[in-house]
Amino acid sequence: SLHNFYRDRLSKAYIFKRVKKENGQDAIESNDAFRLSRLHDCENGAPYQLINTTLNVPGSAHRYLRGRGADFFFFSKLFIGAESTGYMSSISYQKGKTLLATATAISGAAASPQMGSSTNPILRFVMTLLNIRLNRWMPNPDPDYRAKIKVWPYYFVKEILGKTKETDGLLNLSDGGHHENLGI
């Protein structure tokens, strides 16, 4: 998908750091490689950040998830996951390499074939087929399901048919506003 392009543009615009140049002047540089697990490394009094995304699960066996077609999926400094998948420490999830830019881009990925309960099956099919999407496939934090099939054609078919579940090895994550738009 266009996720990587979108992530890189957001990162260049909003994720940066202050550095000292050789002449002693302060400068601002891009901080593309900033890891989510490193948030709040210094005591600066900033609030604990939760990045809300949507876990698209229209094929779920759980009635309340299937009805909405989605669940909350959170990224934070300490934990990553959802109630339906369980949570894993940010340091253990992808060996602590999840980027802040990746989580931010997923949270703002407004173009997605799956949009919770307002998903249109024909539009989902066309958007997936034409690759008009910003959503992202991420590993399941539940260790029982991480070893499942991770071959892209399998997940492409699941996405195009709306059969993704919380028990898949890879999870389809998109804009948090597809499920909840208050940002709470």
Concise summary:
This protein has 184 residues and is α+β, with helices and mostly antiparallel strands. The chain is 24% helix and 23% strand. The longest helix is centred in the N-terminal third of the chain and has 12 residues, at 3-14.
Give a verbal description of the structure:
With 184 residues, the protein is of the alpha+beta class. Helices cover 24% and strands 23% of the residues. The chain has five helices and eight strands, in the order αβββαβββααβαβ. The strands form two sheets. A six-stranded antiparallel sheet has the order 6-5-4-3-8-7. The chain has a two-stranded antiparallel sheet with strand order 1-2. A hairpin with a 2-residue loop joins strand 4 and strand 5 (79-82).
* Major beta sheet summary: 6 strands, antiparallel
> How do the SSEs run, as a string of H and E?
HEEEHEEEHHEHE
Structural class: alpha+beta
**What sort of overall outline do the alpha carbons produce when their principal axes are compared?**
globular
Instruction: Give a count of the beta strands, DSSP E runs of length 2 or more.
Output: 8
Total number of helices: 5
Query: What oligomeric state do these chains adopt?
Result: single chain
Roughly how many Å is the radius of gyration? Answer: 17 Å
Strand order of the largest sheet: 6-5-4-3-8-7
Give the uncertain stretches in residue-range form: none
Mean pLDDT: 84
Query: How helix-rich are the residues, as a percent range?
Result: 10-25%
Question: Termini distance?
Answer: 28 Å
- Beta-strand percentage range: 15-25%
